[in-house]
Write a structure and sequence with these properties.
It holds the Pfam family UPF0261. With about 400 residues, the protein is of the alpha/beta class. It folds into 2 domains: about 170 residues, Rossmann fold (3-Layer(aba) Sandwich), CATH 3.40.50; about 220 residues, Rossmann fold (3-Layer(aba) Sandwich). Strand 4, helix 6 and strand 5 form a beta-alpha-beta unit.
């Protein structure tokens, strides 16, 4: 039977980890405890001791104790725990993981959890779970549970919280997973509110033709998650119609997916159809959070928490150059489809971001920079949300996948 990994610092939180371990085992599951503590003696004996974790992280536990450098120790033990957990999973020894901690424990626990595939139960009880969890969760399905109180002993309040976490991971591991439907090729698509009509129509057509489509919201994390799943080999084809995260990375908006966005499919020979959806906008928070330097620009208050800024001529030129450079790395079949009558719902005649000149610079630069020996360039006298455009990109992706 695969076990539940119980990962944490047994020198500082051993009582709590023992409590969680016993509840999981009371549910009929086996556990394997991984000790990531450094300085003190463990509260109880782990199957994988701290010297083994330190060694996996590239150091000896004796050196860590001698250095007495908390930051360095945390880095070593995080890396070591991640390597140990990855090896246990690859050997078929664990089917889920739970950890508890404050800032150090959360870093160690979630660093290891990120090494496990999507779908493997991951529960992190953390004093930080009520704040910004993006640095810890990243693009993985880590369940963050707020500890409410500091994790220091199993008192009358914390015991209930820790028990809930233990029952949660046990239930996830024991639960009967739904029977998979007929396996169909998996397509990744990107969408924003302003490209929804296009993506919905394309998804409908693809699913009618035997494909399964998963849609990623282009909010930074969504793009990162898609790129990761492409790299991990889950995705058979990509319908990357909404490349707006490139704008935020270039200009400094709040929804950047990082510098590697739009590269995974190209580098991994995954067939892709790409478009320029929502390259007319950069995303910021509430309007009063807009940087001073942008306040004279074309601004659109999307809702109380989201403010959009129209990309200008210079930015559109740069975006096209960035996009062309990334797509020109393609080792597989790639098509770039340009919607010449507008790239978003609010980039159309009479709409607040309609920008014929900006779009022209974007399209002209793409025409100039795209290597058409590697990328098929297709132009449509259509708006991105026109039904005809949506069907054309869906059909093109099917063609590329069938001929791959």
């Amino acid at each position: 039977m695969s076990k539940v990994a119980v990962l944490g610092t047994l020198d500082t939180k051993g009582e709590e980890f023992l409590y969680v371990k016993e509840i999981i085992e009371g549910e009929g599951l086996e556990t394997i405890v991984i000790d990531a503590g450094v300085m003190g003696e463990p509260y109880f004996e782990a199957e994988i001791k701290k010297d083994m974790v330190a060694k996996a992280g590239g150091e000896s536990i004796e050196n860590l104790i001698e250095k007495s450098d908390r930051g360095y120790s945390m880095e070593v033990m995080s890396n070591g725990a991640a390597k140990v957990v990855e090896e246990l999973y690859e050997a078929g020894d664990i089917a889920g993981i739970i950890s508890l901690g404050g800032s150090a424990g959360t870093t160690i626990g979630t660093t290891a959890m990120k090494k496990l595939p999507v779908g493997i139960p991951k529960v992190m009880v953390s004093t930080l779970a009520s704040g910004d969890t993006r640095p810890y969760v990243g693009t993985k399905d880590i369940t963050m549970m707020y500890s409410v109180v500091d994790i220091l002993g199993a008192n009358s309040l914390s015991a209930n919280i820790l028990a809930n976490a233990a029952f949660a991971v046990a239930g996830m591991v024991k639960g009967k997973k739904p029977e998979p439907k007929e396996k169909r090729p998996l397509i990744a698509a990107t969408m924003f509110g302003v490209t929804t009509p296009c993506v919905e129509k394309a998804r409908e057509y693809l699913e009618e033709n035997g494909y399964e489509v998963i849609v990623f919201h282009a909010t930074g994390t969504g793009g990162k998650a898609m790129e990761n799943l492409i790299e991990e080999g889950f995705i058979a084809g990509v319908l990357d119609l909404t490349t707006t995260e490139l704008c935020d990375e270039l200009v400094g908006g709040v929804l950047s997916a990082g510098p590697d966005r739009l590269e995974a499919a190209a580098k991994n020979s995954v067939p892709q159809v790409v478009s320029t959806g929502a390259l007319d906008m950069v995303n910021f928070g509430p309007i009063d959070s807009l940087p001073e330097e942008f306040k004279a620009r074309n601004i659109y208050k999307h809702n109380p928490t989201v403010t959009l800024m129209r990309t200008n001529l210079e930015e559109n030129k740069e975006l096209a150059e960035i996009m062309a450079k990334k797509l020109n790395q393609s080792t597989g079949k790639t098509a770039l489809v340009l919607p010449l009558k507008g790239v978003s719902m609010i980039d159309a005649e009479g709409q607040p971001f309609h920008g014929a000149e900006e779009d022209q610079v974007l399209f002209d630069t793409l025409r100039e920079k795209i290597d058409q020996d590697k990328v098929e360039l297709i132009e449509k006298e259509l708006h991105i949300n026109d039904e005809e455009f949506a069907l054309s990109v869906a059909k093109k992706l099917i063609e590329l996948m069938e001929n791959n």
